[in-house]
Design brief:
By secondary structure, this protein is of the alpha/beta class. It has one domain: 3-Layer(aba) Sandwich (Rossmann fold). It contains seven helices and seven strands, in the order βαβαβαβαβααβαβ. α2 (43-55) links the parallel β2 and β3 (60-64). The radius of gyration is 17 Å and the shape is globular. The two termini are 31 Å apart.
Amino acid sequence: MSETPLKGQVAVITGSARNIGREIALQLAREGAAIVVNGRSDKAAAQSVAREIRSIGGQSTVCMADVTEPEAAAHLMTTAKNTFGRLDILVCNAAIRRQQPFVDIPIEEWHEVMNVDLNAPFYCLKAAIPMMIEQKYGRVVTIGGSTLHLLTPNRAHVTAAKMGLLGLTRAIAIEHGEFNITANCVAPGHIETVRGASAGNRSTGGIERPIERLGSMAEVASMVTHLCKPEGAYVTGQCLHVNGGMYMGGA
């Protein structure tokens, strides 16, 4: 197997200026993929990731785009094709967390979560899938979470959006397998990331999980990378859990 099995491929990772998205971008770059780094507002952070990729010998460009806008999502996909000639991998990582008791969720907050966690991946996929169909190859990975599987309290909007995202992922898988397109969801558990205050409190490591620690961003990114490599070509329509055993049920 080649040391850079993704050489010649092009990947877009939404929300890749920091945290898990950044780590996914770096890991895919190490496997040989050219990377389109995406952010919404922090251009300096996105440019820093792109420079880091180039420093390890990879190819990278930055596209600042608010993927909750259909035109911006389409522009992000065409940036990949216009810059590198194709689009092979789409990782829908951009997301927000909000935490409110159901009766206290403002209508505006419900729409905010749905726009970022569900509508944005739809817009990106609407633009990316025709490119993948044309080249008869594609890898789609969406980033879910433990919330919808464990039914975490006070996150009705996040649960609903992420459940919808899983359904959307499986719809892509069932409709496009004939074009050598796979689609899978990676669901992180409690991961050591930098979180905003609106995400709510994070559980401490070691609670109700056999592996008594928080997971690392690299461990999540490694699962995403596996699904994009040749070894992952026969996996599609699945939800892969990276959570230290906190959830052991069926997907």
